[in-house]
Amino acid sequence: MLSRLNKTCRALLASACLLAGLGVAEATTLRFVPHADLQALDPMGSTADIVKMHGFLIYDTLYSLDANFVPQPQMVKDLKISDDRKTYRFTLRDGLKWHDGKPVKAEDATASLKRWMARDAAGQLMGRVLVEMKIVDDSTFELVFKEPYGLVLESLSKVASNIPFIMPKRVAETDPFKEIQDYTGSGPYRFVAKEWVPGNKVVYEKFDGYVPRSEPASAFAGGKVANVDRIEWLIIRDQQTAMAALLSGEIDVWENPSLDLLPVLQAAPNLATQVINKTGKQAQLYFNHTQPPFDNPKARQAMFWLTKQQDYLQAINGNPDFYRTCASFFVCGTPMETDAGLEALKAPDPAKAKALFKEAGWDFAKPIVVLDPTDETTAHPATVVTVQAMRDIGLKVDVQAMDWATLLKRRNSKEPTSNGGWNIVHSYTGGQVVTTPVWSIAFSGACEKGLFGWPCDQTIEDLRLKWAMVDGVEAKKAVAAEFSRRAFETGHHVPLGQWTTYLARSKKVTGLLETQDVPAFWNIKKAD
Predict the structure, then answer these.
(1) Residue 448 above 90 pLDDT?
(2) What sign results for the dihedral spanned by CA atoms 444, 316, 489, 394?
(3) What is the per-residue DSSP string for 173-228?
(4) Count of CA atoms in the C-beta half-sphere (13 A) of 23
(5) Local structure of 366: helix, strand or coil
(6) What's the rounded mean pLDDT across residues 171-175?
(7) Residue 369, domain extent
(8) I need a surface site. Which of 192, 197, 329, 477 has the fewest CB within 10 A?
(9) Which pTM value belongs to this model?
(10) How many of the other CB atoms lie within 10 Å of CB of 204?
(11) Are the CB atoms for 392 and 409 separated by under 8 Å?
(12) Is residue 241 part of a domain?
């Protein structure tokens, strides 16, 4: 028996040596637990982060944001801008291929941009000044504008959904409001549809035909080098189960553990924790601008003076290492950060808030309706803080408890509070979405066509367009400051501060990039 075992071992060892001699390496699989399940596959049909992560794996973009928020060429080799800055000529770089082996062409890019413009707010804005898209040859196309537009490259490299991922022309010609059925991309990984089990597992395989850029990877820009052969997303909803799997080595990366588990994960010798999105998330307080008392801008301004961001962040996050106060509508740490007009957030004054409510003519005996989603882990604690602050200055508050799904429907009501309406709701968004006046509908002043709560101010809308039209970072900063001052004057909404989350990983996994957004899967290495 022992002799036979020794022969078997020698044979296996010889086989392993032969494979090594031939340069045949064992495939590397990265097992990843994301923050949510992937249910939709069309990045034009959803703004969810999980769909965006899927998109970045299998598609590529013409331009991408680097770690300093600067647009960098991605699929583009050369850009020529006309002297009057109305025509942008893009030439695609060599070696771009679809996952089916066919070359990427200019017609694919233009068809994809047309579909994106039909769905995305920034794309729609760019479309208002676009005269035509013109195909020059298989690798070159032009965007021709009726006047200089200062947001072309920023729009093409945006990471806030919807993202202008480039798809094959046959796919991009799908009705923008219908789901695509063909998931052929040109990115560093391809989606393995036959192994997709919704609610359980998503699989991606390295695309050997992908040619990375030569520059070092920087957030979503640079060389997207696929170092692992296979990526498996495993959907594990229970935190304790996910932690046990990570500790035992059954998974390699866990995207969004609870902060309560941080000490345990940091103490594990085989694990590391990492913040890849230092931009984080921002919480907001929104008003119903159509109903008293918040139909009066003085009442809306009062809530700024009543806002102590530290109280909100302690309630929402609780760990000062993971949150920061931020007196800015635009996320702190990003280029458009400005505290213009926001002295109230830097030095709250409840007495001044109370005086402004009185100047607005509000009867303190009347109730102010605040919707409270008791099952939501960010909006609910924020609601509790707001309600207490309002009561502390003598306001009567009617807190109406409900689940998050009900609130999302209820906040669309324009009825008076006596008939199912509301005065205040709380929400939050990813930091990247609120880094400029343009990316998010949260900054809209478009009345009935805009955000729930229906803030209505033409100056706000004009400033959003002005920001899009000016060229250069300094010019955009100046407009962002104008917007900030006007948003306080009108009491648009109240930013409540920002916080970050973290991921946990095996120490065998290295190369995770700081993206200031969702995780990127290129550049990652996994040791044996």
Answers:
(1) no
(2) positive
(3) TS-TTS--S-----SSEEE-GGG-BTTTEEEEEE-TT----SSPPBTTBS-----S
(4) 0
(5) coil
(6) 97
(7) 281-499
(8) 197
(9) 0.76
(10) 26
(11) no
(12) no
